[in-house]
Structures are given as C-alpha cells and as structure tokens.
Amino acid sequence: MDLNLSAEQTILVESARELLGRRSPLAAVRALEAAGRGFDRELWREVARLGWVGLTLPSEGGHFDLLDVALLADEMGRALFPSPFVPTVAMGAWLIDAFGDEEQRRRWLPRLATGELAVTVALAEPGARSLWDPPGLAIAGGRLSGRKLFVPFAAEADLVLVAVAGPAVVAVEREASGLVCTRHDALGGEPLYALAFESVSCEPVAAHPTALPRALDRGAVATLAYLAGACERVLEMSVAHARMREQFGRPIGSFQAIAHRCVDMRSDVDALRVLVHQAAWCLAAGEAADVAVASALAYGLEAVRRILRHAHQVHGAIGFSMEYDLQLFTRRMKAAELGWGPAALYHECVARAMGLG
Amino acid sequence: MNFAFSEDEQKFRTELRAFLASELPSWWRGMFVDDPRAMPFTRAFSRKLAERGWLTMAWPKEWGGAEASPWKQAILREEMWAHDEPRGPQYMNLNYIGPCILRFGSEAQKRRFLPPMAAGDVLWTQGFSEPGAGSDLAAVATRAEPSTDGFVVNGQKIWNSYADAPAEWCFLLARTSVAAKRHHGLSVLLVDMRTAGVDVRPIDSMAGPHELNEIFFEDVAVPRDCLLGEAGQGWEIVTAGLTFERVGIARYARAGRVIELLVEHAGATGLAGDSEVRSKLARLRVQYEAARLLNYRAISLQAAGRVPAVEASIARLHNTQLEQQVSDVGLEILGLAGQLTADDPAAPLTGLLHRQWVRTIPTTITAGTLEVQKNIIAERGLGLPRAR
Q1: Which residues in chain A have Cβ-Cβ distances shorter than 8 Å to B4?
Q2: A267 to chain B: which residues are within 8 Å by CB?
Q3: Multiple choice CATH, B250-381, 1.20.140.10, 3.40.50.2300, 3.30.365.10, 3.40.190.10
Q4: Which of A259, A287, A347 comes nearest B282 by C-beta?
Q5: Are B281 and B329 in contact, with CB atoms under 8 Å apart?
Q6: What is the sign of the dihedral through the CA atoms of B211, B217, B223 and B227?
Q7: Could you say which of 3.30.70.3400, 3.30.470.20, 1.10.540.10, 3.40.228.10 is the CATH number of the domain covering A7-113?
Q8: What's the pLDDT at B139?
Q9: DSSP per residue over A36-64, as a string?
Q10: Share of chain B above pLDDT 70, in %
C-alpha cells in the first residue's frame, strides 16, 4: 500500500501543470468556445509530441497506465483543457490496442499517438438515460444505420468508435458517406453532437463482451480525474476570494460559515481523488475493480455538485457573472457530471458488488 | 502508487484474526459496557498482545517495540477497532502518551514510564478539558505552582475517560506560569493518580461507564522529574499528541465491520431487495471506502517520513462522520427493533447498532470537535485567516 506519487509521476504532473498553464490559459479556453470549436489541433499535436497521447501504447513508446492517464486528466481538469483526451486516450487507444487486429493497430495507433488521428466514442442512443444503457444499433451487411447522441468533439474527430448491439464496438471514418453530424445546444460549451448514420460503412474493432464495459469504466475514471482537477481549481478560486473579499470589515474567510464550506470542499476533493486513484490503479492492475470504480463514481459525481454549490455560495454574485471564470468551470463540470451520471446507477453497482444480491 | 497490501501484511492480518478469534470471549462487546469483566479483560488481553510483541510494535526496539512498518500498525489498529478495541484504554498509551514521552521525555522518564506501557501493565487518563476550557483548550486554568521540589497542582479537569477504571497516571495539561502569554504558560505534568489530593468522580453518561469523569486536584504535590519536556512546552506537546491521535484510531474499520453485519442482516431478513435499503447501504460503503483511503493517504505520508497534519485532520472528518452515519442508517434499517439494547434477548445483532449509535455521539466532540478540526484545516491547510 502506498498512495504517494512516484518520482516519475511527480515529474509528469508538474510538467503538465507548467505546460497547460502556459499554453492553455482560461482565455484560450473561452476563445475556443466563442469560436464554436472543440479543441486546438495544433496544441493537441504539441502535447502528443510530449507523449501524452500515446502514453499507454507500448507500440508507440508509451510505458504508462490508466493511473498516469488519470494524473494527466487531473491536470487537464485544473486547466479546463479542451481536448479529446478521454475518448481518444482513455478509451479509443485502449480499445484499438487491446482488441483491434494487427492491421488496424498499424493503421491507427501511430497516427493517434502523434495527434493526427483524433478519436471519439459514440455511446448513447435516443431515449438513453446514461452512457451505460446497452447499445441497440445493429449492423447489416457491414453497414450501420441509426442515431447516436451526446458524442463529444465529433465534428473535429477523425475516427468514431461506435457502440453497437452485442455489445460490440465498430469504427467509422468521420468522413464516411452517410454520416451526418449535428451539434447539440447544451450547457457545457464543449461541443456534443448527434450523429445520424445511414447505411454507413463500418469495420469491427471489439466484439469481446467486456470490451465496451471496461472502456466505459476507463472513460468514467478519466473523466472523474478531470473533474477532481477542476474541483481543485474551483477550491483555489474560492479560497482566494474568501481571503481577499471583505465584508463587515474583515475577510469573509475569517467567518466560520465561509471557512467551513471551503474545508468541506477540500475534504470532498481529497476523497474524490484517492477514490479515483484507487479505481484507476485497480483497472490498470487488472484487479477486481467493480467496487473501486463504482465507489469513485458514486462519491465523485455527488461531490462535484456539493463543491460547486459551496463555491458559488463563497463567491456570491460574482461567481455566476460571465466575466468571472467560475461560470466556465461550473458549466463544464456540470456537463461532465451529467454526461457520466446518474450517481444512483453507481450506488446500485456498489450494492450488488457488496453482496446485496 | 499501490493499493494492495503485501503478502507479508496480509499474513499478519490473518494471524491477528486467528488470535482474536481465540482470545475474545463471546460476551465481549467493548469496554464501555456495564460488565465488570470488561475492564480486567482489556488488561489481560493487552498483556497477551505484549507477550507477542504486538502491543507496542510501532515503538523503537530499545523501548520494547518492534519498529513495525506504519502499514502493519494500521492493520493492527483496523483489526482491533473492528473487534470493539479489546486493548481497552491501552490504545491511548500506544497512540500518543507513549509517543509524546518518547519525543519529549528525558531518558529517566522513558525508563520509568515506557516499559510498563510496553508490558500492557498501566492505565493512563488524559487531563486536558476543564469546565472553562473545552474547544478553547488554551484557556486551561488548572494551576501548577512551582515549589521547591516540583509543583503543587490545584484545579479541576473534566471529561476524563478511564480515570475511574482506575487509571494510575494522568497526562495533565496545567498552567505553570500566569505571566507568559496563554499558550506559553502551559506545561504537561505526568501525575501519579494515587497522590494525596487527587479525587476522581465519575460522570454518568449515555456512552456507558468509564467514558466520563471529573478529576479534582487539591494541593497535589508533583515532583519536578514528572514535568514532561520544558515548562511552557505544554501546548506544543499536546498539539503533537493530538496529531498522533488522529491517525491512531481506525474508526473506519469498525464502521466497515458494522456495514458487513448490516449487509448480512439485510440478506437474512429479505431487506436486501428493498431499493431504499440497498441505496443507503451502498452509500455507507462508499463513504467507508473514502474514509479508509484518506487514512491510508495519511499513513503513506508517515511511511515516507513526513508528518500528515492536515491530511490527518481530513481523515478524521471522514472517519467520525462515517461512524455516525453508519449508526444512524443502521438503526433505521433495523426498524423498531433497533432500539432494543444488548440486554434484551430480542435485540437484533446483539444490540450492536444501539451500542454503536450511543458510542458515536461523542466522536465528533472528543479530541477536538468537528468544528475545531475544520478551523485547523481552514488555517493550516487552506491558509484562510483565523476563524471566529
């Protein structure tokens, strides 16, 4: 048992914080949103050159695992770095590497690792309450028809991995004919799309029954790590505000009602983070991960809500003004929470795993 | 990072469980029960642990310890707390009174006080709170007036656990100087409870016998060699002691055990199919997981040679609230029968939840209230201005 970061992990985290702080300030995040874009492809190639995109792919020189993916995602959350990191690295790279055939791996992985091939994952279908609802899309004669919703970055991706009945996963080229991509008008600001497939050519990637659920576990844990980083930044903003803002002749942070909200945030972020690390470690180590993953999600998705409420109470009206960055964090974090929820789903997973039948 | 125990550590846990299974009598329900067998049992049990080298396994070898890794210590604490802490009051000696003497004591004090603790042969009580000094502990008014050969103590302490057990020694925080600023006038005295002028009066409490006492000191002579550290160092010693104490109690392990028993109960009674019950038990299990890992984070820092001050306070927030939620939800799941005590033959789980609920009322109060913990985290962890 050891919950400390290794020296190598510390370097990874510190270099990520430095680079993202310099190359992806919040002004840049806002500019992308204003331009209706999902991510900056130039910057994505730049972080790929640092090895962040191929970090779990031995064929591309990567020697890290999902825990390191979570550590990077945490730093990305801190910066609200807009990128297809979760679908491409946590999910897509793993699906292709673990289940794709030799030719697919040779065709996709080198380009994925250099940032040339951005991958997204199409999961939810009309009527789905969560990403975990079993996919119903069927393939006929090697062609795919039907609709997928809430697909992140789809317009800017190059390859779409689609969950289909089985469950199985097939790949569709983003430019394939018969695929139409329409943007949702949603809360978060990071672009989500509805995809309509009409007899679109596709190729099988993974048919193993555990492939899709495990990919979902990985995506969920990486997203939660991203949320932990975002929560950390929201806490820092709240503490800075509580120290600076004066009312009744003293900093509001000297009032226990405010200070204790900040402490509750600290306590929730810390719990969320150790749970995420455990879940990522169990998945990476191939240990029984059900309780660890479900516990992290059950705790984390609710913690995010509490943390945002506290942050807004500490900030007062400035917190929801558009000029202040808390609104940006609030929208992105809420979108991620809703995207991977509801928490009740994970409580039920824990109940099953703890022996309640 | 690594979230698994080593084979050696797992083997140690198995040994401990076998030992507990053979040593714990069927009537054992913890020390705060109205059973005259309980307190003597904890002493006999502690001596047996001492014989196996498990009582003070965390201590340095020269003082009867085994210098066990922080993880083995954690496993020992988990197994003890999961089994209603059969070491009784000894856990205080091990967690912080002993470590404070190790850190601040003279060679002579170490020689005098540590071996009896290592043998499981002595009971200590803690003399911190006073009627006028609770959360504001630095307001301590009990006076230790310097005399020719030591100190003369006058004053009153309150909420002292085990003083009536009876404790032989008291780890006393008293004011040795009224001239110094209030934190600086405090000192720690190691007081023999058999000295003339010491009077212990038990306070009847919901939490059971031995939990609470008052101690009155009237012209109690304390020799100079019973001053721990320097005069005026009391605040530093007590702060260090409370930090040791925070990671020293594996409350999550007891909560985890109660959750397991509740799951068995739900399975046996058909409640496992009730979605409300499932969701509530799952929620407890998740909180347990968070509390356990936050303790492990603090222990990881210790294992790396660092002092987990804020991390220990955060772990404590989770542990104490987990214990209370487990008992609230547990009683709710038992329904009407939850109110039956262990003495009622119809009590489900032999009255465990009722006992747990009563015992966990003080957990967010003793050794620093939840609010005091939060003030500490706000100031030291977050850099917020001193709270009011």
Answers
A1: 1, 285, 287
A2: 314, 317-318, 377
A3: 1.20.140.10
A4: A347
A5: yes
A6: positive
A7: 1.10.540.10
A8: 94
A9: T-S--HHHHHHHHHTTSSSTT-GGGT---
A10: 99
Tell me the chain B residues in contact with residue A285 when contact means C-beta distances shorter than 8 Å.
Answer: 3-4
Query: Quick one: which of A152, A5, A15 has its CA closest to A75?
Result: A15
Question: Which residues of B are less than 8 Å from A262 in CB distance?
Answer: 378, 382, 384
Q: Which CATH superfamily is domain A119-206 in?
A: Butyryl-CoA Dehydrogenase, subunit A, domain 2 (2.40.110.10)
Q: Which of B4, B297, B317 sits opposite A274 (nearest CB)?
A: B297
Tokens for B66, please give them: 């085994």
Torsion of CA A292, A229, B373, B306, to 10 degrees: 80
What was the pLDDT predicted at B19?
Answer: 98
CB contact under 8 Å between B279 and A351, yes or no, is yes
Chain B interface test: which of A255, A262, A267 (most B C-beta within 10 Å): A267
The two three-digit tokens of residue A28, written as one number: 């840049």
Mean pLDDT in residue range B340-349 = 91
Provide mean pLDDT across the span A318-325.
95
Task: Tell me the pLDDT band of A165, cut-offs 50, 70 and 90.
Answer: very high
Helix runs in B179-269, H state only: 234-247, 251-269
The verdict on a CB contact (< 8 Å) between B294 and A263 is no
Q: Is A96 exposed, middle or buried (0-12, 13-18, 19+ CB in 10 A)?
A: buried
Q: Which of B79, B85, B214, B245 is catalytic?
A: B245
Instruction: State pLDDT tens for residues A235-246.
Output: 999 999 999 999
Which fold is adopted by the domain A211-353? Answer: Butyryl-CoA Dehydrogenase, subunit A; domain 3 (1.20.140)
Chain B residues touching A239 at Cβ < 8 A: 382-384
- Mean pLDDT, residues B53-80: 91
d(CA A99, CA A163): 14
Active-site residue B245, yes or no?
yes
pLDDT attached to residue A198: 97
Q: Of the ranges A175-179, B90-94, B285-289, which one carries the lowest mean pLDDT score?
A: B90-94
What does the DSSP assignment read for A324-350? STHHHHHHHHHHHHHHH--HHHHHHHH
pLDDT of the residue at B48: 94
Question: In this structure, how many other beta carbons lie within 10 angstroms of the beta carbon of residue A29?
Answer: 22
* Facing A262 at nearest CB: one of B6, B273, B378: B378
- Whether residue A260 and residue B383 make contact (CB cut-off 8 A), yes or no, is no
Q: d(Cα B315, Cα B300) in Å, to the nearest integer?
A: 13
Q: What is the mean pLDDT of chain A?
A: 96
% of chain A beyond a pLDDT of 90:
97
The nearest CA of chain B is from the CA of A269 a distance in Å of: 11
Given A255, A271, A356, which is nearest B278 (Cβ)? Answer: A356
- Judge whether residue B89 has pLDDT over 90: no
Q: Looking at residue A163, what is its pLDDT? A: 98
Question: Chain A residue with minimal CA distance to B9?
Answer: A1
Is pLDDT at A164 greater than 80 in this prediction? yes
CB–CB of B289 and A292 under 8 A?
yes
Q: What is the dihedral of CA A210, A216, A218, A224, to 10 degrees?
A: -150
- Which fold does the domain B7-88 belong to in CATH? Butyryl-Coa Dehydrogenase, subunit A; domain 1 (1.10.540)
